[in-house]
Amino acid sequence: MSIPAPVGKFITVEGGEGAGKSTSLEFIRHYLESAGHRVVCPSLPDAATSTFDEHVATVCGAARANNCSSIRLVGQSYGGLVITVANDQIRDLVDRLVYLDTAYPVPGKSLFDLATIVDVDPREVTDPYPPFVTPLEFDTEIWAAVPKLYVRALRSRFASITAVAARRVDERADEENWTYLELDTGHNMMLEAPGQTVALLERVA
């Protein structure tokens, strides 16, 4: 039996509010597939009963199970932290990382830590479930070498967090391989503006 050749695909990862629900993923899958793209949308286990490592393993497993290469790994909100660590484990398969209105990932810091750094009460962001209080562990040199796109939602309810991320992206654009774009929508752009989001994603297809 012949083994199918690896194919380039989008792998999209939802935010913390979508973990275990996948509403955002269904929207973005429909629009991307309608535009002719191949899409894998792994559903993260429920954050209340799972771990950050399980979320990362879900993404990496989906890439391997679908024989993917030349991956555009897309993370919405908390999903941006998941793709950052997943990239370490499947770096030979990833062509680009795409961050949709996310916190700026920092080694040794969890989602709760990243909110606290910018004087936001993390309990206003999400519940203290295990994935959201787990510090990130990733190789910054490997991460910096991958081309990255950051898309900021201009009407995000987490503007204080994403404004810091946008500033860091701008300051480190050259050394960390960033491109920066903005979208006039709320935080969950996959759900609120799927057509516009896909139009931006198609720039890196």
Task: Provide an overview of this structure.
37% of the residues lie in helices and 18% in strands. It has 205 residues and is α/β, with parallel strands linked by helices. Strands 2-1-3-4-5-6 form a six-stranded parallel β-sheet, with helices on both faces. The longest helix has 14 residues, at 52-65. The chain starts with 6 loop residues before the first strand and ends with a helix. 44% of the residues are buried. Mean pLDDT is 88; it is low at 1-7.
Mean pLDDT, all residues: 88
Termini separation comes to 30 Å
Total number of beta strands: 6
Number of helices: 8
Helix content: 25-40%
| Structural classification | alpha/beta
Regions with little confidence, pLDDT below 50 for 5+ residues: 1-7
Instruction: Please trace the helix and strand order, writing H or E for each element.
Output: EHEHEHEHHEHEHH
User: What fraction of residues sit in β-strands?
Assistant: 15-25%
Enumerate the strands of the largest sheet in spatial order, edge to edge or round the barrel.
2-1-3-4-5-6
Note the main sheet.
Answer: 6 strands, parallel
Shape: globular
> Could you tell me the radius of gyration in angstroms?
16 Å
